[in-house]
Structure formats: structure tokens, C-alpha cells
Amino acid sequence: MKRALALFCAAIAAAQNPEFRNVAKEAGLTAPAPNGGTASKQFILETTGSGVAFIDYDNDGLADIFVASGPGSPSRMYHNEGGGKFRDVSAELGFTREGWAQGVCAGDYDNDGYTDLFVTYWGQNVLYRNIGGRRFEDVTAKVHLTQDRVRYNTGCAFIDYDNDGKLDLFVANYLKFDFDTTPKPGANPYCFYRGIAVNCGPRGLPFDRNILYHNDGGVFRDVSDASGISKPDGNYSLGVLTGDFNGDGLTDIYVASDQTPSILYINQGNGKFVDEALLRGAALDDDGRALSGMGVAAADYLHEGMPSIFRTNFSDELETLYRNQGKGEFRDVSVEAGMGRNTRFVGWGCGFFDFDNDGWPDLLLVNGHAFPEVDRLKIDIHYRERAILYRNDHGKFADISEASGPGIVEAHSSRGLAFADYDNDGAVEALVNNQNEPPSLLHLARKPSNHWIELKLEGVKSNRSAIGARVRVTAGSLVQTAEVRSGGSYLSQNDLRLHFGLGAAVKVDKVEINWPGQGTQIETALAADRVVAIRER
Amino acid sequence: MPATDKFLRPCILASCAATFLFAQTNPVTDGIAAFHRGDYQAARVNLQRAPADPRARLFLALTRAATGECDAAIPELAKGFSSGDNRRLAGLALAQCHIAAKRFAEAGAIVAQLEKQFPADPDVLYVSADYHMKAWNDAIYRMYQKAPSSYRVDQLSAEVFETQGKYTEAIAEYRKAIEKNPKAINLHYRLGRALLQQSHDPAVLEQARKEFEAELSLNPSDAVAEYQVAQILVAEQQKPQAAPHFERAAELRPDFPEAIIAVAKLRLDAKRYADAIALLDRAVKLQPRNETAHYNLMLAYRSAGRTADAAREKIELDKLQKPPEGEFTDFLKRLGDKK
Questions:
Q1: What pLDDT digit, counting tens, does each position of A116-173 carry?
Q2: How crowded is residue A218: how many other Cβ atoms within 10 Å of its Cβ?
Q3: Does this model's pTM top 0.80?
Q4: What is the mean pLDDT of residues B271-288?
Q5: What is the pLDDT at residue B25?
Q6: Would the CB atoms of B298 and A278 count as touching at under 8 Å?
Q7: Which of A112, A122, A153, A531 is found 20 to 30 A from A14 (Cα to Cα)?
Q8: Which of A284, A322, A377 to mutate against chain B (most B CBs within 10 Å)?
Q9: Residue B102, Cβ neighbours under 10 Å: how many?
Q10: CB–CB contacts below 8 A, A to B
């Protein structure tokens, strides 16, 4: 009897664990994304790239894939052909540029109905205007986004910070870097890791400032100084996350910062931002230490109606989960939420996604050390590492990485991570940028049995991508909130559609949409298990 | 070349350059000049010609020390060290002579006096480091000679491995020491700490906790072991179980800022803000530069609605988090700003 019960329990446990497989090769994602050295890296620039994006550029209802790359390959766009297959369309769409591509973010900046793409570089950034879903045009100079010096641009996000219906643009900057003056590995105390010479930085390298561009209607204007965005001058900025963190209807900006306090720009509503991260408890860890922030994600993981913030950090540091206690005041709850044990990983891309559609957003983060040289130390920290998958069990996170299929435990030196249900079957997939390897495409071998709904929002008075729209979904007793975001994770872009797991509910009772600055729209009685397009009224 | 010679030549060359410039053709100045050139034979011949001159006697002693004749040099060096313009030089040579002869007690006394009078002198600091290193080596040698199977040998080996970052080896040595002397204080604590440093595997937490608990069974008043047990329980998501350990650590050592801060955090969790603030105030008084204390005090004020106090603490924290003046970062930052 006991044996039968044990077998039964084991069967239930197995059924609950997901099985993620890396289907990149079968899907046609075989080109590696070069990013500096593989056995050693001379410069910090080789360590930070690059992001990925899911973007439905041709509005065919299927999320396409963009993979940013360092020199040696252009960044690539893959068209979703359906049936789980992708085709490299980079050259025909106009993606031929090579360089140190870092981040990627999407948004329809000109409100023409086609999602545009912004790619950050060490060097000049590029705004790719989507021309009817047929090709992309580099309009950087035309829209006044050319920079007057070489900058180390990293995370980015389109954001309508003044709710005027036109998407503005935020760009994080890591530090000031050039190949000629940056010291070589071992040159000074900032160029060592556990006694071995490694690339220098970020400590010891000069800070740079973040940038905000206002969309003046077709052209952009640098408002970094006037808005207060450029005021913080002691942060190594990487991942960017936007959201209304204090519930005042205005979009704020969080920036994960490496080895320095992270930034929380609170939107003051008059075109100005003030960094309130420290006072609001979102800059440091529980002990008041600045960690090495890389990627960042948000979710209402406890169904409290407010977005909490998750940030990935370096090895020998914990990941950080800041619970939003309401009104944008945060508390580091990493350990009590179940994240007190993974300290050997350097985390990058991260995101909440409900892989089992139970209505509780789970969490995936991808890892890989900054220094390939770490493998010489023969310790339990490695350059290539597996991912970490946490299951959200009513607000407590259980690490189920080792039991979640080969896709999760494959070792790579991963950076960018993005999510989409690219085959519209109700199960969310993950796309990962691996340094000097082809990307990973993590697909669930078995579709979850729970129900779901996916919302594709289209702004009319608001920006057409509906970026900044806040959505509250009620299905029975399950009430979830989410927000349409540009950018996020580590230098990456998730599909702009919002996915909600519904558990056993076969319909959604109510969807409340707060369009950015435009009031609330309510939709009722929506059937589950489908993608629903909602246009702003 | 004797060790004393290697050391003395450069430091004397530097400090007596002025003397050299004004050298005249008399045996004392010629002898001193020859000493500085490292021509000890000429130095000796010249300096011996002026036995009544105290400078000549001192530099002759320095020459002797530089050529390994310490015993003959020591009386004059001791005189020179007690007073006179060349006190520093005489002291350095005297200390080196005692170190070479393994008379560490005498050497230590001289080094202490030199450090007091010349606290930033690189030659003095070098001799001090040399003295400590050789004294340490000598003590270890004697320990291995006279008590080779003592648990202290294993403990010392473990501590050396620990400082080298060789935690696996350190753990093995601590275990050997514990086997030899299961009642020895501190061994379980250090083993627990080495276990935590050796691996990032969550399973190690449990092993380390057992060691800290073993330490506590030997020494129930060990506040740090108590604190470590609590920290591990927190990492294992057993915060309620951790709480009494934090409380006890703070009771055992009222001057233990980390334990006080941990108890303050418990009060914050319980929304007992006034209690938390009182504790954090105490931690700040104990360690005015403790960032954790200031940070949590700021959060406690914020939660208590004392926004002005929170803002004041933020200013303190901002100051503490600025890199120290003149740090390399600032230098490079200035370079970067020129672009």
C-alpha cells in the first residue's frame, strides 16, 4: 500500500514538473552569435552582449525572433514560418550591420501599426523603422538619435513617460570604454578575479550617464538633463525595466546597475524623474550592499495588484526579489521567498512567465560567468552554467531547475532572455542568447493542462503598441495584473502580448485595461484558451 | 651578500645623499662615502683611522653589520639607536642583526620603537614585515619539531590553507584536529566557516550548521556561532527558528553589531518600528560606518513614517557609499570626463 502511494505521489510530482527542451536547431536557429573570446576575454565589452527579442514584425499573429550579436555576424531576424520553424530573413529585411550590439527593445514609435526595433551598441545605436512588415530602414540619423561620441549603450525601452500617445525612448549606459585606454587583464587590482587576471571593470572604469529621448513626433530630442535622467552619475547601468511602480498612473524606470546601487527613476509627472531607489528600498540588498545587477523583471507575483521587481546578480551574491509593499516601497524578500540558495551563478536574463498556466507567474533566469578564465580555477563556479527555474507556489519560489528537462540544465554562457508563445498554443516559450553559440529556444515538451488567455492590445489615443497599459484580469477568484512593456529582462524584449494562466477557469470574467493616461476600459466574459485582440475605445 | 647588506645599502644611500655631497678628503667622510658605495673594504680602512669620532664608530658598526659581523657591531649600533642623528639607520641594522640571529624578542622591541617613531617609513615597515614573517616561520618550525602530532599543528595547517583559499585542504586539516581534540574550542566554528567558503552547494549549509551547533555545545556563550546558526536557518527559510538564535547572539554580545541588526530586522518584520530604531541606533553608535545599520535604520524610519529622519539616514548612507577619496576609480573617472 505504502509503495503504491509513493508511486502515485511520484507520478503527481512528475506531472507537475515541466519538461523544457531546447528546440533551436529544429526550429532553424543554428547561427552562433559571436561575442568576443571564448577561452578568455581581454575587455569587459566582450562580456555584456547581447539581448534577444520576440517581435511580430509583420503582424501575422506569430512572434518572430531577433538575436543581437557582437562582431563576426550581423544581428539576425528570423521569420516565424509556423509549425515551429523560423527562417533567417536578416539580409532581405535590412539587418546587415555588424558591431557590438548590446540591447534590443521594441515599440511602434511612429504609430503606423508596425512594431519598430531599437538596437543599442557600443558605438552608434540604430533605430530600425518597420516599413509595412516588409523591411526595416535605419532611420537613426533621420530621427536625430545619432550620438556625438562612442557610448557603451546597454538596456533600452520605449516608454510614453508623458502619456502623450507617442513613445519616448530610454537608453541605459554602462560606462566609458575604449580599446586604447582600458587597462588589460591583470593591469590593476580591478582586473583580477579570485587571484586570476581577467578583463578590467566595471570598477576602475569611468561611469557614464543614462539617456532619455523625447518623441517630438517623428524626431527625438535628448531630454536627459532636463528630465533629471542624467543626474545619477555613479551607476554602471545594464538592464532596464519600466512600470508604474507606485501606482500613480505614470510610468517609472528601474535600472539594474552593476556593482553600484540600482536606480529607480520615479516619474514626477512634470517631465522630471528623481532616483528614489535607495529610500524606496530597491537599490541595495537587505544588508545595504550594492550588488552586481544585470537583468531585471517585474510581476505581481503575489496577486497584490502591484509589480514587484526581480534582479539577477553576480556569483557569491543572492538574486534579489524586491516585494512591492504598495505605493512603490520595496523590501528585499529574496530569502524568505525561496531564493536564498543559488549563489554560484552569474545571472543575466530573467523573466516571470506562467509555464504551467496556474495563474502564478513562475520565474526563469539564465546564467553564465563573465570570465571564461574562471574554469581554470576548478571550483564550482563555471563560465557555462545551467538556467534556474523557480515555480511560484502562491508566492513562495521552489527551485525546480534540475527536474525541468534538458533545456534548463544545458550549460551555456547565456545573456539575453525573452518570452513568447510563438506557436499560440497557450504554452510560453523562452529564447536565450548564448555567447558564441546559437541561441536556445526552450519549448515545453508537454503543454500544460490549465487554461490561459493572451491579450494583444492596440492603443488609439494611447501609443499604438499600448506600452504602459496596465491590465487586471479576473477569472473566478484569480485576479492578476500585468503591464505591456518595452525592453526588460537582460537587454531583451518579450512579445508585447500579455499572457495569463487561468488555472481551471474556462473563461475570464473581467479584463480592466488602464490605457496610459487615458482611463479604464472593461471587457467581460472572454473565453479562455485564445489570443484576444483589444483595441482602445 | 648578507641580508643586512642587501637591505642597508639602498636605504642608507637615499638618506645620506646630502652627506655624500659634502664629503671631503678626511677618513670619516671618505669612509662614509665608501660605505654608501658599497666599498666596505675602503670604508673599514678609513673609518678605523678615526676611532675617536662617534660617526666613524657608528658607520664602522654599520659596515660590520653589512658584512655579517653583527656580534662586533651590536654594542655600537645599540648606542647609535639610543640617541643621535642616525638613530633610524642604527635601529634598522640592529633589528636586522637580531632577526638574523633569531633573537626575535630583542628584534621585536626595536621594531616596535622604530614603528612608533617612523610610522610611515617604508624601510621600517619592510623590516617590521620581515621580522614578523621570520618570527612566524620560526614559531611554526618549532611547533612542527616539538609537537608534530598535536592538534594545533593540524589547526595551524588548516588556517594557512584557509588564508590561501584552499578550503578543501583546510576542511581536511580541521577534521583531523577535531579528531585529535574533540573538546577544543573554535575548531568546529572554523570548520563550519571553511565549509561555507568551500562550496556554493545548498547541502553544505546543513553540514556547516551542525559544526556551529557543535561549537555551541562546547561553548554555549559563543555569540558568533549562535549568529551563524541563525544565518543558515534564514537561508534555509526557517526564519522563525532563526529568531531565538539571533536574540541570544545579541544578548551574549551586546557589542555585536551584526546580531543587533539581525534582531532589529526581526522587529521590522513584526512592524515594531520603535524597537527596531532603538536597536539600529545602538548598532550605529557601535559602528558609525556600518552601512547595513544605516540602511536598515533608513528603512525603519521610512516604515515608521519618519520621512525626515529617513532622508537624513539616506544622506549618511550616500556618504558611506562614495568611494574613498583618491580611489583609482576617481582618477579614471576624471580621465573619462575629459572626453
A1: 999 999 999 999 999 999 999 999 999 999 999 999 999 999 999 999 999 999 999 9
A2: 12
A3: yes
A4: 97
A5: 74
A6: yes
A7: A531
A8: A284
A9: 10
A10: 79
Identity (one letter) of the amino acid at B91? G
- Contacts of residue B319, Cβ cutoff 8 Å, sequence gap at least 6: none
**And the C-alpha cell for B42?**
675602503
Dist. CA B16–CA B34, nearest whole Å = 12
Asked if residue A536 lies in contact with residue A459, where contact means CB atoms within 8 angstroms, the answer is yes
Residue whose grid cell is 521590522: B268
Vertex A179, ends A173 and A180: CA angle to 5°?
125
Q: What are the chain B neighbours of A315 within 8 Å (beta carbons)?
A: 200
Q: Do A287 and B237 touch (CB under 8 A)?
A: no
Enumerate the β-bridge partners of residue A365.
A350, A388
Rounded distance between C-alpha atoms, residue B57 and residue B80, angstroms:
9
Distance CA A5, CA A469 (A): 48
Q: Which of B201, B237, B328 sits opposite A204 (nearest CB)?
A: B328
Q: Is B200 close to A261, i.e. CB distance below 8 A?
A: no
Contacts of A376 in chain B (CB under 8 A): none
Please state the length of chain A: 537
SS3 for A332? strand
Grid coordinates in use for A309?
521587481
Please, what is the average pLDDT of chain A?
Answer: 95
Look at the block and give the residue holding cell 511520484.
A10
Backbone phi, psi, residue A510, to 5°: -155, 140
Between CA A159 and CA A229 the distance in angstroms is: 13
| Residue A216: HSE in the Cβ half-sphere, 13 Å Cα cutoff | 10
A336 contacts B237? CB cut-off 8 A: yes
Give, in order, the Cα–Cα distances in Å from B289 to each of A239, B253, B258, B310: 30, 19, 13, 17
Phi then psi dihedrals of residue A470, to 5 deg: -110, 130
- Please list every residue in chain B whose beta carbon sits closer than 8 Å to the beta carbon of residue A189: 328
Question: Cβ atoms within 10 A of the Cβ of A313, count?
Answer: 25
Nearest CA in chain A to B289: A288
Around Cβ A331, how many Cβ atoms within 10 Å? 20
Collapsed DSSP state (helix, strand, coil) of residue A57: coil
Phi, psi of B27 (to 5 degrees): -60, -35
Smallest Cα distance from A381 to chain B, Å:
8
How many angstroms separate the CA of residue B312 from the nearest CA in chain A?
10
Amino acid at B35: F
Task: Map grid coordinates 473581467 to a residue.
Answer: A510
Q: How far apart are CA B56 and CA B45, in angstroms?
A: 11
B112 and B98 in contact (C-beta within 8 Å)? no
Contact A524, A471 (CB under 8 A): no
pLDDT of residue A341: 87
